Amino acid sequence: ERRLQNIMERLNMLSMELSPPGPTVAAGSVASVFSAKTKLYIYSSHISFSSSFKTCLFPTCFQRGEVLRIIRKTGDGWWLAQDTEGNKGVVPKTYLKVINLLKIISGAVHLIKHSGFHCVCVCVYMSQSDTTNVLSSLGTIHSGFRSSTFKLLMEEGHYTLKQPELSQSQLSFRDLFLDPVTGRVRGRQVRTCVCFTLWSCRMIPTPGVGVQVLSRHIRLCAFDGTQVLSNIHTVRATYNAKSPKTWSFSPRMTGILPTLLDGDCFLRCNSVSPDLGILFELGVTFIRTSTGDRGDLSCGWAFLKLTDDTGNPLSSRTYELALNGGTPFEKNVPVEASVTTGSPSGVFQQILQARRQPKLIVKLKSVNRRTRMQLSLLPDTLLHCLSCIPLLVLHRQLLADTLLMDRPTMQNADLICSPVLSTFPVLLDQPDLLDALRSAWLDADTNMSRAQKRDLSYLKQEFVKVYMSSVYFLLHTPSLPCHRWADSVSEEQRARFIYATLDSLKHTQHTADQSGGPEFFVNRMHQHLAFDITELTFDLLRVAR
């Protein structure tokens, strides 16, 4: 009886926590437990566990499919976990498997709508940002705004650029092959390969008073209606105070356009799903002026299905996508409650209502033959900006040489000494360093002759030199401020340091002829962080996993 009473009390708390925004006494009671600052690991048991062990999680046992929250992981394989009733204990990691967070969210929304039951997993997701909950309660943000789903998924670390995966036989790679005649990466055609431009966003509601917006951006990925199929790519929008509800992309500027602001993107995906498309989440990173708390909001989402009703690819033209509120798993949620969704009687009212609806404008476009050839050399699943294709292709070629040619045997899985391969994925999480590599490589490319540009071995050798004498040095210098998303002070400091360092390094290399050589790194003029073996080692087994 006491156990049932505890369950009823917990359900009441969860009901209050997940209720629509409004004043509530227990609004922070559950949210304080599942704070956004605490990294959460949600697992379910795939084997029933007997109570014969003294270290069992429950007094009796736990059943197959029960959801557990991992609090601490240990090297001996016995992890400290917590069940939905708050009981803590240790459990063998071999009896657990990770739950897909998207399935938790979609299943929980379906459960709430049809049965009114609120599960703890929904509480973990919905309460991941205490600041967002407070702003909802105060009415500062619109009813269609939510905590950013993509931000939460990116923090898991599973939706970044994937290294080559092994095939089903475990004897070769799934999408990485070499042409035996030319020695180049063999191009692969995928079912879906589109190039598009983020044009603008119109009539996007702004947060209310007491909130300072630090960044307006779009996060996008390949999506089939149930799960994320690619990496999550971020494009920051530019903002004009004269038209606060309009976002634009790819601003004109001197020099190279930063990767973070580049709205020209491509998607490669080999999924056979008929519902494959691109999911866009419009978001803002904000800071609450009264407390200094930061958070990430979703201002709405849109979905562009890449095939028509007959299954044919969409034509290259401009598409206006209506924005929806809530999460991608909620239906018929308006972004802004003040915008009526009913059908007005007059034609003039219909035109006015259509102009008030939030929209995302995307343009599908075709590219030239050279770009299509370069795209075929990239992984089967990837979403990124078009300006980074040359760097991605060169990295792909070095990866193929290392994994398919330079290993003693195909069964050899020893650590590989390759500072470029071990650190290149870090650049995709720090766009300013990726821009530094683009700038350095552009300078080197302009000084090459046509014959040198056609020589693959020369290109690879030069790319390694440029990489080692630019971004590899920047990655391991103690003077570079830490990367922090949507922090204007940190971004300005990093930008000044990066380009001042690149100019200094360029001058040193021209005078001393030390482009990427060992002498460059032992020079007492250049400071470095303490050496770590992971800077140089590429772990094939970790990549395969």
UniProtKB/TrEMBL annotation:
Key words, A-Z: SH3 domain
DNA damage listed as a keyword: no
InterPro entries, alphabetized: NPHP1, SH3-like_dom_sf, SH3_domain
Domain SH3 as annotated: residue spans: 38-101
Protein name: Nephronophthisis 1
GO biological process, one term: protein localization involved in establishment of planar polarity
GO cellular component, one term: cilium
PANTHER family linked to this entry: NEPHROCYSTIN, NEPHROCYSTIN-1
Domain of life: Eukaryota
Keyword DNA damage annotated: no
Family matches, as Gene3D superfamilies: SH3 Domains (2.30.30.40)
Organism: Mastacembelus armatus (zig-zag eel)
PROSITE patterns: SH3
